Amino acid sequence: MERLQKVIAQAGVASRRKAEQLIVEGKVKVNGKVIKELGTKVSGNDEVEVDGIPLYKEEHVYFVLYKPTGVISSVQDEKGRKVVTDYLYGVEQRVFPVGRLDYDTSGLLLLTNDGDLANKLMHPKFNVEKKYIAKVEGIPSKEVLLNLTRGIVLGDGKTKPAKTKLISGDRRKNTSIIEITISEGRNRQVRRMFEAIGHPVKKLKREKYGMLNLLGMNPGDVRELKPFEVKQLKQLTVTEKS
């Protein structure tokens, strides 16, 4: 027996959090009966429907998208803006993004219908590293960047230590390029961290997610992960990191 929201997530319909929302909203039926209790457990013999569509277990698929700026990290947008799944031509499975990148942020975004792995990758206990390249206002000193490596207090608490590297500085334009690696996934975290040290972000790109990178890809490109890459991703969620 498995919790209903987990079964929905594993089937690739939505993330576990979204699945819980669907249950609470009365959009899920088990054996023809609407279920709104999050603690409900079901077996493989139960018939589950989501929004009137019977649930079946899809083959898991995994993709990397080089998300362009001006694209929503969602499967749909009520304002009709372009979303990340618009780039997955010919993919029959119902995939969703693992985490998100802001509308104005470009870079590597993982998409899958493997809800169990997605939830593990996003869980803070596994500290999956994400590397970004940021163009910021001004040229921060080593002492200022040291604040980020120690952790900095934001409105939602202190961040975990980040890794930073000043790549270049342009004194004429008063901007700099900085590499920063974090192991959390808070809302607009990198932008808020740089704002907190007085160097707002002008441009931001995620270059790596775990061991995945964007080598050979251009904005809008999509590629399916190789089996060994999927195995490496799953390995990231085996051991908790302090």
Automatic annotation (TrEMBL):
GO biological process: enzyme-directed rRNA pseudouridine synthesis
Enzyme Commission (EC) number: 5.4.99.-
Superkingdom per UniProt: Bacteria
Record-linked Gene3D superfamilies: Alpha-L RNA-binding motif, Pseudouridine synthase I, catalytic domain, N-terminal subdomain, RNA-binding S4 domain
One cellular component (GO) term of this entry: cytosol
GO MF entries: RNA binding; rRNA pseudouridine synthase activity
SMART domains per record: S4
Top-level class of the enzyme under EC nomenclature: isomerase
Domain RNA-binding S4: 2-59
InterPro entries according to UniProt: PsdUridine_s_RsuA/RluB/E/F_cat, PsdUridine_synth_cat_dom_sf, PsdUridine_synth_RsuA/RluA, PsdUridine_synth_RsuA/RluB/E/F, PsdUridine_synth_RsuA/RluB_CS, RsuA_PseudoU_synthase, S4_RNA-bd, S4_RNA-bd_sf
Keywords: Isomerase, RNA-binding
PROSITE patterns registered for this protein in UniProt: PSI_RSU (PS01149), S4 (PS50889)
Pfam family name, one: PseudoU_synth_2
Residues spanning the membrane: none
Similarity comment text for this entry: Belongs to the pseudouridine synthase RsuA family.
Protein name stated in the entry: Pseudouridine synthase
Annotated organism of origin: Lottiidibacillus patelloidae
